[in-house]
Amino acid sequence: MAKTMNQAGIYEFRSPSGKVYIGSTVCFSNRLSSHLHRLRRGVHHSAPLQAAYNKYGESEIKFSIVLVCSRENRVFYEQLLLDALTPKYNVSPTAGSPAGVLYGPMSAERKQKIS
Known about the structure:
Blueprint: E1 9-14, E2 20-25, H1 28-41, H2 47-56, E3 62-68, H3 74-85, H4 108-114
Antiparallel strand pairs: 1-2, 1-3
């Protein structure tokens, strides 16, 4: 398992309720550390996952590797799983995109300013 943790692919966090968070990474160990750091500080980008972490505790939120794949294919496979599972802890329906996560849905005014 140690060697696998340094590879790319798709992972999930699952709570005792059965709800999941799906993500992709180029290095499982680095991404797990990043998630845990934010969850422990109470500042995770996924408010639903943060709430589950706060409710159940770290030992009950299970991290697991779903698929080991190439870096180039990870976003493709993540999107397939997001579409198939519609995971409750993911706040963006789009793999590899922070759209709607950092700033919420974009208003027409903001879209006009950007264009």
